[in-house]
Amino acid sequence: MTTRANAPGYLPGFGNHFSTEAVEGALPEGRNSPQRHRLGLYAEQLSGTAFTAPRSENRRSWLYRLRPSAQHPAYQPFAQGKVRSGPFVDAPPSPNRMRWDPLPMPSEPTDWVEGLVTYGGNGDPDAAGGIGIHLYAANRSMIDRVFYCADGELLIVPQAGQQVFVTEMGRLDARPGEIVVIPRGVRFRVECEGEIRGYVCENYGAIFRIPDLGPIGANGLANPRDFETPTAWFEDLDRPTECVQKFGGRLWTTTFAHSPLDVVGWHGNLAPYRYDTAKFNTMGTVSFDHPDPSIFTVLTSPSETAGTANCDFVIFPPRWMVAEDTFRPPWFHRNVMSEFMGLVFGEYDAKEGGFAPGGASLHNCMSGHGPDQASYDKAVKADLKPVKIENTLAFMFESRMPIRTTEWAQTSPTMQLDYDDVWTGFEKGRIG
Ligand SMILES: [Fe+2]
């Protein structure tokens, strides 16, 4: 399992241009679609934005492949399993705070597609806004099968096991602590050696990009140089390969007579990428008070309302806590944005038990939440010396729209029915 990566670059948001070929001569010189390709490859433009999107937003790549993508029979419905999609209407929306134990590893042979479980989401892919939130647990590689999502780009957060994303545009391996983003439409399979688990944010809205830094300045948070795109890689396999896609909220399948992972070279500014969260330059207070978690934003999918994201991807990585005269964990809060959290490893500082790696929690629009009793008691008594929070990685998909949970998520045996109890028992404030 190896990764070959382009020079790291400034992909998320504003479009570096990459050029890569696995065979010399795969990339035509001087034109995108020559009359005759010198190797007989087929040119294909993959557009991730409208043709007419402003240059600063425009994302497209040219692929040069062994056979046209169009060469396949009609798609047929595929077993939907536990995959759901916006509009999320299979269960009534719930205002309740929710938390789930880790998604169990499968007991039967299960690949990445078969192991997808939708917890909830919002919006509608047809309206180009909102997100779908899925987890996956699998124990075997996808064999003679690829997948792509026509409904949104996929931000994947591996939580357990080494996993390799073999895409049309190259290979990216990823371990817990790294993330992988696969553009809408890009076909891939997931390979593994043993059990894997992780989280997926399916982004129906604007493509993820690194956030503006404002007064922080030109450096900090996720630095552009640390995003890695793959080099061209292809396979020349003349054997039936199933292609499963998500389109219009449904899963569909067809069978190619060959592997569609046959792109010999590509150039452009639309590509899958990987980011190692250990390279995140974490900012925080050096005086007092608890900054809003937006200071930890890795990627954002903006909406048409300035500063109000369709989705922010926020991490809570290892960091120093030095604030004086301050309750250092997150205080109680109610938020117009809705917060879905996961834990890759370690322990989250506002919850010392019950929120386990591979688990999840949801604090929906305006639902009150914050530290549990044990975390509160510890924080108010803490000796406020500098402390380093280590060996932990929690994250949040934060969205402008309430998150509607699926029927599966609301009735799963992994749901912690006593979650509300973590906020019982607080003493009344003393005003007398
Ligand atoms: Fe919160």
UniProtKB/TrEMBL annotation:
Keywords: Dioxygenase, Iron, Metal-binding, Oxidoreductase, Phenylalanine catabolism, Tyrosine catabolism. It catalyses: homogentisate + O2 = 4-maleylacetoacetate + H(+). One of its GO terms (biological process) is L-phenylalanine catabolic process. The keyword tRNA processing does not apply. Fe cation binds at residues 333, 339, 369. Its EC number is 1.13.11.5. Its cofactor is Fe cation. Pfam families: HgmA_C (PF04209), HgmA_N (PF20510). Pathway: Amino-acid degradation; L-phenylalanine degradation; acetoacetate and fumarate from L-phenylalanine: step 4/6. Residues 279-428 form the Homogentisate 1,2-dioxygenase C-terminal domain. GO terms for cellular component: cytoplasm. InterPro entries: HgmA_C, HgmA_N, Homogentis_dOase, Homogentis_dOase_bac, RmlC-like_jellyroll, RmlC_Cupin_sf. Homogentisate binds at residues 348, 369. The active site is at residue 290. Residues 10-276 form the Homogentisate 1,2-dioxygenase N-terminal domain. NCBIfam families: hmgA (TIGR01015). Hexamer; dimer of trimers. Involved in the catabolism of homogentisate (2,5-dihydroxyphenylacetate or 2,5-OH-PhAc), a central intermediate in the degradation of phenylalanine and tyrosine. Catalyzes the oxidative ring cleavage of the aromatic ring of homogentisate to yield maleylacetoacetate. This is Homogentisate 1,2-dioxygenase. It comes from Brevundimonas viscosa. The lineage of its organism: Bacteria, Pseudomonadati, Pseudomonadota, Alphaproteobacteria, Caulobacterales.
